[in-house]
## 1
Amino acid sequence: MHILHTESSLGWGGQEIRILTEAEGMLARGHTVTLLCPRESTIYHEAISRGVAVVALPIARKSPQGLYAIVQWLKNHRVSIVNTHSSTDSWLVALAACLLRNPPPIIRTRHISAAIPDNAPTRWLYTKASRHIVTTGEALRQQLIAVNGYSSGRITSIPTGIDTGRFVPGDRMKARRKLGLVENVFLIGIVATLRSWKGHCYLIEAFAKLADEHTWLVIVGDGPQREALKKQIAERDLDDRIIMAGNQHDVLPWLQAMDIFVLPSYANEGVPQALVQAMLCALPVITTSVGSIQEAVQHEQTGLIVEPKNPQALAGAMERLLSDASLRQRLGEAARRYAQERFGLTAMLDKMEAIFTEVGDA
């Protein structure tokens, strides 16, 4: 097959990483894969570095120029399927299909749990223009069925797959020495794009309640909230115990350096990749019940669940793990086993390939 992905987002996070991971997997299986995206987007440059064919088009915003560019590209290139990912590119592709004589079928991947508008145009986009919908978690699938009334037979949940052979527990002290981190501290960590709904501000508030000067926090990732978070850290005089590491091309050593992983999201989640990666590294995790997170983390079994936007509850969960080594070990080992069973890369590629084949042959 020739699989075409479109992505209008300029940012970088789990959604963009999934697109490229899936593209690399399909290339390895013998398919042709092309990505259309804005030249100024991070994914454009990442695709080049990973050997994924990428074409720059002006599709960062809904515009006649973007629509024309997609129409012209599809006229000149035959593809088996189009997989759209963000709202803007989904609309542009759907409208372009209306202007083509024999348009390729469209699959819409829904990565986040944000509410979908209940209006006629949006219903057309999801039920008529798109041949199939893929969600990154079952909770997102059920949301589309129960809230939006979309047909269950046209929606499939396929969580993002992680390379279980690569994300493994490591030597914590060795990882810290490699990264230049302090060795003789408890290290709490988060890996996430610095967006408001990832809950970093609540994590910092909770961390400020921990009096132990031998407990540090490392924040891996970058994004629009960076300056606000730096200001919050400075205002609470925590600069000496909080490390803002920025974006890291390889997050594995950072995960292996941590004692505890925290993801206090309060909106928009499917099954977060970084959360599953942390679980595969046998880290005890603290998170919330937002989106499809509970498909990975069950309270007291594979991690601890706290109420979103509640620094007090978050601090209590961190203190509990910090003071109980046996609990950290039990939750970490259980998390690793569960993630290995449910969130492997091969399973995701098998399911996506089956959807592509079914829709492409229909």
## 2
Amino acid sequence: MLQEPTKLDSLTAAGKFADLAPGLSQEAKNNLLNAAPLISIRVLSSLVRAGEGLLVFLTGLAIWLAYLPYAETYTFYIPVLCMVSLAVPTILHMAGLYRLRALQHTLTQVTRLSLIWIVLFGVLAVVLFFTKIGTEYSRVWFAAWYGLGFIALVGYRIGVSSLVRHWNRTGQLSRRAVLVGGGAPAEELLKAMRRSKDCDVTVVGIFDDRNDDRSPAMVANIPKLGMIDELIDFVRRTRVDLLIVTFPLTAEARLVQILRRLWILPVDIRLSAYTQKFHYRPRAYSYIGNVPFLDVFDKPLTDWGALLKAAEDKVLALLMLLVLSPVMIGIAIAIKIGSKGPVFFKQNRYGFNNELIEVLKFRSMYTDMTDHNASMLVTKDDPRVTKVGAFIRKTSLDELPQLINVLKGDLSLVGPRPHATLAKAADKLYDDVVEEYFARHKVKPGITGWAQINGWRGETDTAEKIERRVEYDLYYIENWSLFFDLYILARTPLSLLNTENAY
């Protein structure tokens, strides 16, 4: 999965990290700030596998069409092309040739690749011979497919290997991790991870509240970067993919306290089981290399889920813009006729990972009364709202320009609604009312969401309204699926008929 890092002002951030870790080199600080986006190894290997199957099919098809006259009469070639094209990636997968190490070092895998190719075509030749249908197939085509197909596969692998090595050098195939808790347990864990050959994690630092001999400033050449309170800001400002908690299970109260503070972050959280004396069944563990961990929290959207979500957003947002453009033009004209000022209204809101994003809306208030920070919620018969604005707010048509935000990548079609920076419930900021409020920002905010179609939209004048909205938002995050998104999108027009809380 691709995740864009947040880029800060380099001088400010570098100075901040210098205070946290004086021993950290400037190059290391720059790497933390400008880390390249992570590429999912699972998605990469799946794409390579699909590419090889397609390559084998197209090579055989091209030789067939080029060599055989009237090729359309030889449709019995198609089943053989399909079977071999499916068999090649399946067997290579079983042989471990789609693991990261194999993709990086193609030339060392040529022997295994050639052996598999020879055996596969040998089996195919035997099957064709004993079923007495071999005479139906061109021997020139069979031999050419065998030779050119192997050359095409090796060439494809060399190209993939070059890309994989480049991504590996830039750190895009290695998850960046932070240890929560230092000292002896962290040192033992780091040594075990370094001994593991298939470890795809790079530990960039340690955060620990202890400042005594139990938590030195450097553990196994990994620096301590700060206190746990500073970790949340660090994760939001740099590309961190994984938090590893090294505290023992016996420190239950301390673990609960730490996890309650960290679970709002859009990262995987694992509990080190390497030094634990109490052992669970093997199925209870996940592994980094051969080092065991207990899964505590998972990032909501990873691997294919993230790609499907991005594709859904881009394709549907573009189609909706095309279909709704006449409506949007009509609204724009009505706004210009109804009151002076611009058609669009821009407002800063909290987005993914608590970043500030600029959200577009149709202007619904008089220009001199607009509230860019939403410090005062809109109420029924609010004098700041224009006549046109009252209608488009009730029907949520003022949100349509946010389709542009979706195409830009700031918003998703479906997700927790983005709230203004100073939005309040019962005269308190939302995060002061609901402890887990910022967990909503583990995914991109959306134009519509599970809370909205269940009636929790509009004014939040009581604590209960924002509490229920957050409850529905967290349910959506924990249960996301493509079909869930499509269901919410289908229900959205019907939910807009309920305008009870929309002003």
## 3
Amino acid sequence: IDTNDEVFVSWLPLYHDMGLIGLFTLPMTLGAELVLAAPQDFIASPGKWMQWMSDYRGTATAGPNFSYALAARALGRMESLDLSSWRVGLNGAEPVDPVTVETFIVAAEKHGMDSRAMFCAFGMAEACLAVTFPQPFTPMQTDWVDRRVLESNRYAAPVDHSAPNARRFAKLGTPVPGLELRVMDPTGEGNPLAEREVGELQIRGTSVTSGYFNRPDATAATFDGEWLKTGDLAYMVGGQLVVCGRIKDMIIVGGRNVFPEDVERLVGQIDGVRVGNVIAFGVENAKGREGLVIVAESRTDALIDEIRAAVSKTVRDSIGFSPAEVVLVLPGSVPKTSSGKLQRSLCRQQYERSELSRAVTAPVTIG
């Protein structure tokens, strides 16, 4: 790397590993230039991120998937940007949605960005950030699989993109030097799974933590010998990693393992729903069966009843069953971590305790 030409641009919080290691420590180590902004500046106006990349001739930046969705919307309203210097746009920290990536690319290409700059990767704080990287400056690669087979048999059966129930995942590259990956049955029994068999991702290597500080219980629960159990459901294809979701977040309905990300992505596309602010989780009913609950932020001027009906219909038509309940909440009330990740467990607790800030239909004034 010629550090004289590198300009890192970041708004990521420094208490998050991608912000601290990827976009603060790295340019400091390389002696490269860094343009650092506050997370609240991006949240208040996502378009500022793109303006900074243009103004400072940024070559490298990073953000979670939702940030690229917000930036794509902002780019549609912006003019006179020059993103031609952009070489690496890392997408990580949360599940990578290929549609979001492609939508952003279309919006950014109009301002001179090369589509090959998008860099879909996987990382963990427990591995000092990087786990898998794609080949730099190559187009995003994806894998089309049968969603029903994936949900029922935990196998990523390849299908044509036009096939019924086709589901697309982003390929996240190969292990960085010093790391090894394996996919195991979530029960921890048996040998490593074969290619396209879905199980728990485990990693080991030179940058993996040896344990949690003063938490021998957490350390013992997280490791299988030398292997760190990530809690992520994943599979390997052609040497590349594909991550499907979190084991603890899986929703089991009628014998199917439904990924909440699939539901959240669908609902986020509905008019009146705030993109990146949808959470899906399972709850048990009186008969001990798990049902699907969707919590989504709606715009303050939205028609609540119409949105709720649209959400139910969209999920029923696409996933195959209706949600047990659709809860629309006020903007900014869906629980997230300090780095912007959705907190599904906390949201479920708030739902069960009736603590959600529900949106209500505005009363009609007559006369």
